[in-house]
Each structure stands twice: as C-alpha cells, then as structure tokens.
Amino acid sequence: MGFRRIIVEIDSAAVVSLLNGRKELGRHPNHIIRKVNELRRREWNIVFVQIYRKGNRSANYLAKLSMNSETDYVFWDLPPPEILSIL
C-alpha cells in the first residue's frame, strides 16, 4: 500500500508511554508488545498517541468486536454495518 507514516490511537496512557519509550521492547514478556516492537523496526514511522475512549467510539467498538475473534489480527476492508451510524 505504500504507507510510510502511521498514527496509532490508543486509549491507554500507560500503553502509549510504553510503546513510545526509547528502550528496546523485544524481550518484553507480553507477545503483543514484542510484535509491536518488531513492526516498529520496519521502514516506516509509527507514532502512538492517546485518545480518550469517548473520543473514538468507532475504534472502541471495533476493538470489542475483535475480542471475539479466533485470530491474532483482525483487518477490515470496509467497516462493519453496525458501526456506520457512529462514523
């Protein structure tokens, strides 16, 4: 797709602080943090910013929806119909 600058909005200040830290996270016990650190090493610029849950209801809804998924990653090409009313 050619994306080189990615902004990731997260509702947890603690997670944003951890992910924006300068230290290497490769040995972190949480596999998700390790995977994010692996992705950070690619040739792109990733910025993690805090956004309040109320400020991004659609992302909160998608996060809840993905919790029921059997896979580690969930990608949508189009938003689910249930979310269109809050976009």
Q: What does the secondary structure layout of this molecule look like, with pairings?
A:
Elements: E1 5-10, H1 13-20, H2 31-40, E2 45-50, H3 57-66
Parallel strand pairs: 1-2
Fraction of residues in β-strands: 5-15%
Low-pLDDT sequence parts: none
- Overall pLDDT metric: 79
Note the run of SSEs as H and E: EHHEH
- Spatial strand arrangement across the major sheet: 1-2
Tally of separate helices: 3
Distance between the termini: 23 Å
- Largest sheet at a glance? 2 strands, parallel
Count of the domains: 2
Radius of gyration: 14 Å
Structural class: alpha+beta
- How many β-strand runs? 2
GO molecular function, one term: nucleic acid binding
Protein name: RNase H type-1 domain-containing protein
Pfam families: RVT_3
Notes on the protein architecture:
This protein is globular. It folds into two domains: 1-51, no CATH class; 54-87, no CATH class. The chain has helices at 13-20, 31-40, 57-66; strands at 5-10, 45-50. A two-stranded parallel sheet has the order 1-2. It has 87 residues and is of the alpha+beta class. The chain contains three helices and two strands.
